[in-house]
Amino acid sequence: MHYVKAKGILSAQNGMNLYRGCSHGCIYCDSRSRCYHMEHDFEDIEVKENAIELLEGALRRKRKKCMIGTGAMTDPYIPLEMKLGYVRKALSLVYEYGFGVTLHTKSDRILRDMDLLQKINEKTKCVVQMTLTTFDEELCRKLEPNVSTTRERLEVLKKLHDAGIPTVVWLAPVLPFLTDTEENISGILDMCIEAKVYGVICFGMGLTLRDGNREYFYQQLDRLFPHMKERYIQRYGNQYIVDSPNSERLMALFHRKCRENGIVHSNEQIFQYLHAFEEKQAVWQLSLWD
């Protein structure tokens, strides 16, 4: 862990990363890619020591309320968060200034902040996004070794739904020759149905590999799945987009099962939902005059 002074905290799309780097150890992580110019070891977490001060200033200056997002590059609920509490402080500011929020995580540590998530959701809108890659617990522990297992994430999704907080699942990535089976995709979707998620984001049955994350991914394949790296290199070379040979059949299964169970499966529609700010108290107050 090391501290830096940040110049700003919110992106043009109102996203923020309170930390840079991650200790979850997911073997496929795109955030390791060199194009993101992370000038330190990925597991050496960069902490933006002035992030909360910057966030309060940014929220105070905004003329129009919006959704604030976090988790696109670094999971906000890395173990370090339980010591530093930056995410909780940020959520408190989001609530205080009347903004909405969406968080993307793979960790059950988010349940620590259930009280704040509910308060934000009662006032505006809070949406939790959760990544699911495999319904096989043993395989999950290999692919995502230092984070909540799929079954544990399912329980989080169910608790969030019971608390009235909408959820979205990312079915990504899908790893060719490892998770690209009908059994796996159907198993994940069964979990989404059980958890009553709002929608499932899926960009295709595959993954992306860039300089930086490709090397790490192949190292982990060598360690965990002997001869699998050679199979990838033989079929895909240095391709950026790595599609499953079963992609067409699996995408048809994905869309059919979502459609049959009332789960939104249009990426465009889900992203519109995630970015749409709602002020519930204002709507309720106006209804009194109808």
Q: What is the count of DSSP helices, taking H or I runs of 4+ residues?
A: 12
Strand order in the sheet with the most strands: 2-5-6-7-8-9
| Overall pLDDT level | 95
Largest sheet: 6 strands, parallel
**Structure class:** alpha/beta
Proportion in helices: 40-55%
Beta strands, count: 11
Q: Give the ordered list of helices and strands.
A: EEEEHEHHEHEHHEHEEHHEHHH
Please mark out the parts with pLDDT under 50 across 5 or more consecutive residues, or reply none: 283-290
Quote the beta fraction.
5-15%
Alpha carbon gyration radius: 19 Å
First-last Cα distance:
55 Å
Shape: globular
Short précis:
This protein is α/β, with parallel strands linked by helices.
Describe it for me?
The protein is of the alpha/beta class. It is built from 12 helices and 11 strands. Helices cover 42% and strands 14% of the residues. The strands form 3 sheets. The protein has a 6-stranded parallel beta sheet, with helices on both faces. It has a 3-stranded mixed beta sheet with strand order 1-4-3, with no helix packed on it. Helix 3 packs parallel to helix 4 and helix 7 runs parallel beside helix 10. The protein starts with a strand and ends with a helix. The C terminus is likely disordered.
